[in-house]
UniProtKB/TrEMBL annotation:
Domain Pyrroline-5-carboxylate reductase catalytic N-terminal, first and last residues per copy: 9-109
Binding site for NADP(+): L12, G13, T14, G15, S16, M17
Known pathway: Amino-acid biosynthesis; L-proline biosynthesis; L-proline from L-glutamate 5-semialdehyde: step 1/1
Enzyme class: oxidoreductase
Location within or outside the cell: Cytoplasm
Pfam families: F420_oxidored, P5CR_dimer
Membrane spanning residue stretches: none
Record Gene3D superfamilies: NAD(P)-binding Rossmann-like Domain (3.40.50.720), ProC C-terminal domain-like (1.10.3730.10)
Entry's Gene Ontology cellular component terms: cytoplasm
Binding site for NADPH: N67
Keyword Transcription on entry: no
Lineage, top ranks: Bacteria, Bacillati, Actinomycetota, Actinomycetes, Micrococcales
Provenance organism: Mycetocola lacteus
Protein name according to UniProt: Pyrroline-5-carboxylate reductase
Catalytic activity: L-proline + NADP(+) = (S)-1-pyrroline-5-carboxylate + NADPH + 2 H(+); L-proline + NAD(+) = (S)-1-pyrroline-5-carboxylate + NADH + 2 H(+)
Length: 280
């Protein structure tokens, strides 16, 4: 986004995901040219938000009209409240939206149809699924167009999310599946780091030594993958000497069904996403 005709942005709800995207935008310098209003319940959180460059925090406990006022002045509105709160929030802001406003969902399980059924016909809806590495500019965000989202609207939304990482445009019927991979994926990685750290401690390393060994290894491996023209499979083979220690360890993981475990885990996450979409 450039300083010329930069869109004004509103974050309605700055919880974990909205806060991650906002933090990434600030770190990227985007808020210096694209003013942001961010709403939250408490004055304390609003004050903290206002300390960020280019951000105005609004406390809803002090200004009950804050969401409506923020939405009225914004070109792009990101909806970051909990899924169950989305319909009431949309009904609240619907009369205030200017024609052509782009409303972006950050809420898991809430469909484009729900958004479009509540908002006016002049509103453009885009559904997104970012992830928390947005805080460090390493997000992977899926975006899906609503029925009124043209190429210009999608480009505007893509520009927002590209300030905090990579963007993949998909049809809405793939968003829930995407959420089980990139949306939940950071938690899977952290769980693996926790498990390997516990193994290092069991081998006699101190917690500090284990953190250095494990976190450094994960960081190095991912940076090697990013810098290499080889596939993860080839890089794994490079480390795995025939009849060596790594081969023996990987055999244990294979016997434990590691690949099938991830299929089952992501299937479970997808089933839960469908439950959320159904309101349960």
């Amino acid at each position: 986004m450039t300083s010329t005709n930069a869109p004004s942005i509103a974050f309605l709800g700055t919880g974990s995901m909205g806060g991650a995207i906002l933090s990434g935008l600030v770190a990227s310098g985007a808020t210096a040219t694209s003013p942001v209003i961010a709403t939250n319940r408490t004055p304390e959180k609003a004050a903290a938000l206002s300390k960020l460059e280019g951000v105005t925090g609004v406390a809803l406990n002090e200004n009950p009209e804050g969401n409506r006022e923020a939405a009225a002045g914004a070109d792009i509105i990101l909806i970051g409240v909990k899924p169950g709160m989305v319909p009431d929030l949309l009904a609240e802001i619907a009369p205030a939206l200017k024609p052509g406003a782009i409303v972006v969902s950050l809420a898991a399980g809430v469909t484009i149809a729900t958004f479009e059924s509540i908002l006016p016909d002049t509103a453009i809806v885009v559904r997104s699924m970012p992830n928390t590495p947005a805080v460090v500019g390493r997000a992977v965000t899926g975006i899906a167009p609503g029925t009124r989202a043209d190429a210009a609207a999608m480009a505007a939304v893509r520009a927002v999310f590209e300030t905090v990482g990579e963007v993949l445009e998909v049809a809405e019927d793939r968003i829930d599946a995407l959420s089980t991979i990139s949306g939940s994926g950071p938690a899977y990685v952290f769980a693996l780091i926790e498990a390997l750290t516990a193994a290092a401690i069991e081998k006699g390393f101190s917690p500090e030594e284990a953190d250095l060994l494990v976190q450094g290894t994960f960081r190095g491996a991912t940076e090697l993958l990013a810098a290499s023209d080889q596939t993860p499979t080839q890089l794994r083979i490079n480390v795995t000497s025939p009849k060596g220690t790594t081969e023996r360890a990987l055999a244990v993981m294979s016997d434990a069904g590691l690949d099938q475990m991830f299929i089952r885990a992501t299937d479970a996450a997808l089933a839960r996403a469908k439950e959320l979409a159904a309101g349960s």
